[in-house]
């Protein structure tokens, strides 16, 4: 008896549809037409003899069995990718495609120094970058959409390997003319006015690192969480709307230039975040990630 198995392409279409929740967006993610993706999913349903997706004019709804098969398909695709990774790992180091996630509070301050070095040192590497918040990047890593992630620890990201790169101190940024009196070289957490503290909105791990470093519960209760980026927060501080916290890498990269904002190191026991490169435990490309980590350390 001949057994007909689903193709990887059909599974890819199904997983994309699950992730996007829309045939058009799923087709765009797979770089095919909507009719091609829809036909591929339908062929898969005919092949296995069950309905995976309920189709209406406005809603794409997976059946309970469709949900289970989509998650199984995700694991199959990840295993298939690791087959290619095994072959790649046996060849030239840091060559071929590598998909790296970077969180927004690191990307603009590290990548401009890293990318030119990689182009020179590893010309056969095709590095694809994806900027996401920490939770979104961890989810993408475990779904197999990313190979590694550059993020700040501590952060719970599941079953991963990590290569620590460097410590990134936290600074307290003040509006022009509003710096602490007395010429202090650093700012203790107790000197921060909780009613004026501006922090990044939910989803950015820098917010949690800053609050944990201060160890003041009232800051969590009173701080205004509205910044969508560090650059936005600095502009607000520059306009006298409050104070904020910025990492040393951003200060070194010139984020305060031209704003009049002044920043002082936070004087606390754990006033820093640990920058690290992480990847899925057991990945066959571990040697590549270690080499990439070495390149990141060299740019610091």
Automatic annotation (TrEMBL):
Q: What are the UniProt keywords, alphabetically?
A: DNA-binding, Transcription, Transcription regulation
All residue ranges annotated as the HTH lysR-type domain in the record? 6-63
Q: Which GO terms describe its cellular component?
A: protein-DNA complex
A molecular-function term among this protein's GO annotations: DNA binding
Pfam families for the chain: HTH_1, LysR_substrate
Gene3D superfamilies (alphabetical): Periplasmic binding protein-like II, Winged helix-like DNA-binding domain superfamily/Winged helix DNA-binding domain
Q: Which PROSITE patterns does the entry mention? A: HTH_LYSR
Which top-rank group of organisms is this from?
Answer: Bacteria
Q: Into which family does the record put it?
A: Belongs to the LysR transcriptional regulatory family.
The protein's name = LysR family transcriptional regulator
Taxonomic lineage of the native organism: Bacteria, Pseudomonadati, Pseudomonadota, Alphaproteobacteria, Sphingomonadales
